[in-house]
């Protein structure tokens, strides 16, 4: 049972949940939340790649024992900052869109935009 | 901010200095322990949020913060190109450690400016 | 109906990925061994994540900070409604 609750399985499940939120929901806020869920799934998957049991953190001089892989950790710092930037810009764009059209639904925004032109 | 309770104001005012000390510690030990510029900068940016919560001060100079961020980014680019891409093999060990420390401090201040600009833009301009 | 269809598709994708065979990555251990053995000598750091982040892959850090700067400028631009500052 513990073999299936590994990091990879949880990451793939989170990715599928986020993709469902992107495909099936028409709320803009829920779309932004789904993008956040997908980002956390990617972060979890990459951190689990470099992890093995009985490994220590890669800190210290003259390491002899087995350590985890430091490259995915260094890449995931980049991903976290990119996630913050994407979420902030998306929410700002949503707010100015809400000030103009007054709705949070993708379909209604498209319909109102079609009426204006 | 009006509406903040007395309890929150006093506790946050007491926790103010410890947040600053913790952020400086994270930045300063970024090359010998877990931590670094981005993490410490995010902790230092939370100081601005606490400052907004416990006072009514709304005089944030956005132009100064944005200009400081641009100048710091230019400094980071010049510094890293000069040290790593041209002189990495000729430096001594102390100079390399000093380079890591200075880069962590610059990135920390830059991220602190950026995140506080994002927060105050959302709070002061978007919440009407 | 459409939501249930998409949910069923997602469950099928999840089960399909989990039941597919796993191919271990063998060639990535060279980079790991090189970084673990040489990072103190090359960069002077004791934390290998910082050494990768600020010395081996410095272009990552540069363009990441550029992305944060550009997103801040974009937020300042997008949050001006009807000409106020």
Can you give me a brief rundown of this structure?
The complex is a heterotrimer of chains A (117), B (128) and C (85). Chain A contains four helices and no strands. With 117 residues, chain A is mainly α.
Can you walk me through this structure?
- The complex is a heterotrimer of chains A (117), B (128) and C (85).
- Chain A has 117 residues and is mainly alpha-helical.
- Chain A has a single domain (7-109), classed as Helix Hairpins (Orthogonal Bundle), CATH 1.10.287.
- Helices cover 71% and strands 0% of the residues of chain A.
- Chain A contains four helices and no strands.
- The longest helix of chain A is centred in the C-terminal third of the chain and has 32 residues, at 70-101.
- With 128 residues, chain B is an all-alpha fold.
- Chain B has one domain (6-125).
- Chain B has helices spanning 6-28, 37-54, 62-87, 93-125.
- The longest helix of chain B is centred in the C-terminal third of the chain and has 33 residues, at 93-125.
- Chain C is 74% helix and 0% strand.
- Chain C is built from four helices and no strands.
- Chain C has helices spanning 2-19, 29-43, 48-56, 58-78.
- Chains in contact: A-B, A-C, B-C.
- Chains A and B meet through α3 of A and α4 of B.
Notable traits:
heterotrimer, A: 117 residues, mainly alpha, Helix Hairpins, 4 helices, C: 85 residues, 0% strand, flat
Structurally, how many domains make up the residues of chain B?
1
Mean pLDDT of chain C: 84
Overall shape of chain B: it is elongated
% residues in beta strands of chain C: under 5%
Question: What profile does the largest beta sheet of chain C have?
Answer: none
What would the average pLDDT of chain B be, to the nearest integer?
A: 86
Unreliable spans of chain C are: none
Helical percent range of chain C?
over 70%
Low-confidence stretches of chain B: none
**Largest beta-sheet characterization of chain B:** none
Q: What multimeric state do the chains show?
A: heterotrimer
**Helical content of chain B, roughly?**
over 70%
Shape descriptor of chain C: flat
Summarize the topology.
The complex is a heterotrimer of chains A (117), B (128) and C (85).
Chain A: H1 7-24, H2 28-49, H3 70-101, H4 106-116
Helix pairs in contact in A: 1-2, 2-3
Chain B: H1 6-28, H2 37-54, H3 62-87, H4 93-125
Chain C: H1 2-19, H2 29-43, H3 48-56, H4 58-78
Helix pairs in contact in C: 2-3
């Amino acid at each position: 049972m513990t073999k299936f609750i590994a990091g990879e399985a949880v990451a793939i499940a989170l990715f599928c949940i986020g993709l469902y939120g992107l495909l099936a929901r028409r709320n803009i806020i829920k779309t932004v939340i789904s993008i956040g869920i997908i980002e956390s799934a990617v972060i979890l998957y990459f951190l689990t790649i470099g992890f093995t049991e009985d490994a220590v953190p890669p800190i210290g001089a003259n390491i002899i024992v087995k350590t985890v892989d430091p490259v995915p950790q260094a890449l995931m710092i980049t991903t976290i900052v990119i996630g913050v930037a994407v979420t902030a810009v998306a929410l700002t764009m949503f707010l100015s869109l809400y000030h103009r059209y007054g709705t949070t639904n993708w379909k209604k925004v498209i319909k109102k935009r079609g009426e204006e032109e | 901010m009006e509406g903040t309770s007395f309890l929150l104001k006093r506790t946050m005012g007491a926790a103010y200095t410890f947040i600053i000390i913790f952020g400086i510690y994270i930045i300063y030990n970024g090359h010998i322990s877990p931590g670094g510029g981005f993490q410490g900068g995010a902790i230092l940016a939370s100081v601005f949020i606490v400052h907004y919560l416990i006072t009514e001060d709304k005089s944030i100079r956005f132009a100064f913060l944005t200009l400081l961020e641009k100048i710091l980014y230019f400094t980071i680019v010049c510094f890293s190109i000069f040290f790593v891409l041209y002189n990495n093999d000729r430096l001594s060990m102390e100079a390399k450690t000093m380079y890591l420390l200075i880069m962590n401090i610059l990135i920390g201040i830059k991220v602190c400016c950026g995140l506080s600009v994002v927060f105050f833009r959302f709070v002061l301009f978007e919440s009407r | 109906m459409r939501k249930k269809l998409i949910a069923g598709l997602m469950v099928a994708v999840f089960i399909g990925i989990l039941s597919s065979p796993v191919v271990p990555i063998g060639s990535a251990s060279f980079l790991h061994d090189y970084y673990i053995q040489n990072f103190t000598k090359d960069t002077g750091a004791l934390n290998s994540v910082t050494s990768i982040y600020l010395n081996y892959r410095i272009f990552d850090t540069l363009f990441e900070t550029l992305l944060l700067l550009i997103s801040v400028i974009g937020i300042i631009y997008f949050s001006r409604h009807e000409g106020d500052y």
